[in-house]
Write a structure and sequence with these properties.
Shape: globular
Distance between the termini: 23 Å
Radius of gyration: 22 Å
Helix content: over 70%
Length: 342
């Protein structure tokens, strides 16, 4: 990947990690379901009028909108409202990779290999360690709700893969339109009209900033850049950067919110991130990275020597193959589709 694109990938994961701290700020101003509804309302409008018509069937937009917007984010916001720490939430949500692999095995008939099964076991061990730590130091209900949110994220990932949207930003904007009315209805039923009206009447700049961040920064900008990277490079090159999300999430929560990171939580983070890496990264991608690491030191001197002895480039001749060492232009990969995050 080009350095500027590596910087963009790190920037997006940093924005997604900090998002959990911003959610905590928003939950101080709004009931969780109302906050979730406002997030998707602002993400969808006015962007839905700018991205063009949807490019996949409506059944996929509705399915992903309900699974991702209503179930995943609704449960996440409620879980954090119930006391689940922001940093731990950013970590536990990564178990979605295990749920995605399990659901893909059932729905898409994708049989996980031994490496992926090992990754699932390691990631589940990390979740178990985090559950024991949270059960002794915090509300276990919030932990369970965030794990359930990760499960629905896995459902939405499988639906997104079935939909195979050609434009990630267009798809995400239209998906964001779906949860608004269901979340508002659930908020009126379970949170009550009075708390919703009071929250809106006390709206201040911090509340507006939280809505704008989770809607435009993490959803519209984040998914737009992530979709661009996935269209430009193979998924095996882009996907590993998502493992930085809990790193930024836990770090920002510790710095901004003062959340402590206990020894069991560090162990859970190591197990979970390692297990997710084994589960989500393609075997071919891991092999290419190992091969690149072995060959790179040997190739650099040869390339420099060859460059010093070679004549300058002449005019390109149409129809001739590109010289060795040049980079051919990429075409979008139809097999790699972005899955929604954060």
């Amino acid at each position: 990947m080009r350095p500027v694109h590596i910087a963009l990938a790190v920037l997006v994961t940093a924005l997604w990690g900090v998002n959990f701290v911003v959610i905590e700020v928003g939950l101080d101003h709004f009931p969780p379901l109302l906050f979730c509804a406002l997030r998707f309302l602002v993400a969808a409008l006015p962007a839905v009028f700018l991205v063009g018509p949807p490019r996949v069937a409506w059944r996929w937009i509705l399915g992903v909108g309900l699974a991702l917007g209503v179930a995943k984010f609704g449960l996440l916001f409620i879980g954090m409202h119930e006391g689940m720490p922001a940093g731990l939430s950013s970590l536990v949500l990564q178990i979605q990779a295990v749920f995605t692999a399990l659901f893909a095995a059932v729905v898409l008939a994708e049989r996980p290999g031994r490496r992926r099964l090992l990754g699932m076991a390691v990631a589940l061990a990390g979740i178990a360690v985090a559950a024991v730590d949270e059960g002794t130091s915090g509300p276990l209900l919030g932990f369970v709700l965030v794990v359930a949110a990760a499960a629905f994220w896995g459902v939405s990932n499988v639906l997104t893969r079935k939909a195979a949207p050609p434009d990630a930003l267009n798809f995400m904007v239209w998906v964001s339109l779906v949860p608004v009315l269901p979340l508002l209805a659930l908020s009126l039923v379970f949170e009550g009209a009075r708390p919703d009206v009071e929250a809106l009447s006390r709206l201040d700049w911090a509340g507006v900033g939280a809505i704008v961040y989770v809607a435009w920064v993490t959803t519209v900008f984040g998914f737009g850049i992530w979709g661009f990277l996935l269209r430009t490079y193979d998924a095996s090159a882009v996907a590993p950067f998502s493992l930085l999300v809990p790193v930024f999430g836990m770090s920002s929560a510790a710095l901004v919110l003062g959340e402590g990171i206990s020894a069991p939580r560090w162990l859970a983070a190591a197990l979970l991130v390692g297990g997710v890496a084994l589960t989500s990264l393609p075997a071919g991608g891991l092999s290419r990275m190992r091969l690149w690491a072995r060959r790179r030191p040997e190739l650099r001197p040869r390339r420099r020597a060859a460059a010093a002895d070679a004549p300058g480039p002449g005019p390109a001749v149409p129809g001739t193959p590109a010289p060795a060492g040049t980079t051919a232009s990429r075409t979008p990969s139809t097999a790699s589709r972005p899955s929604p995050r954060g």
